[in-house]
Structure formats: C-alpha cells, structure tokens
Amino acid sequence: MAYDTLVDAINGLKAKGYTYDFNLKESRLDCTAAGRQLSPEEFEVTEVYRFEGMTSPDDSSILYAIESVDGLRGILVSAYGVYADSVSTAMMAKLDIKH
User: Fold this and answer.
1) Closest CA to 5 of 18, 24, 13, 67
2) CB within 8 A of 13, min separation 6: which ones?
C-alpha cells in the first residue's frame, strides 16, 4: 500500500497491529513499552516507507514496520541523509542503510 504522508503510514501500520514504538540504538532496537531490546538477529523488517521533506531534503525520514522473531510488532521512524543515526554495521545491513 502507498501512503501520502508519514502520519498516514504510521496510522495504517498501527491499524495492522504494529502497535509498539522502537528506538534505534547503535546495535539494537529498544522498545521501552514492552521492556525489550532486539538485536539484528531478533527481528525482520516487513515493510519500508520513505518520505521526502516538502521544503528540504534534510527533512526526510524512513518508516520501518518491524516484527520480532517472537511476534512483537511495531514501528521505527528514522531520519536519513545528514541526520541519519549512527548504527553498527550489522544494524545498517538489517535496515539496508546506505552511508
């Protein structure tokens, strides 16, 4: 499915059961609400959406739909371009981040 905005995509994924929010750390994903940390081996990216900033390419973001090997489902929103997060090589490969 194609979404016009980041907010539409977040709402669409939440309606599909991706209810948790993940935070990207150097070598893991943190999910505070579930009290979990996931290494790259413990999750799969099931959907990816890229959004370009309306006024500046620096305002771009990527939305990932994430599912852990044991069924925890949530989303990760990450900036890209000059604001991309610093992550490990394994995490870059898992999220297919190009630096």
Assistant:
1) 13
2) 47, 63, 65, 75
What pLDDT does 99 receive? 41
Tokens, residue 42: 């413990």
Query: Which residues of the chain carry a pLDDT beneath 70?
Result: 53-59, 80-85, 97-99
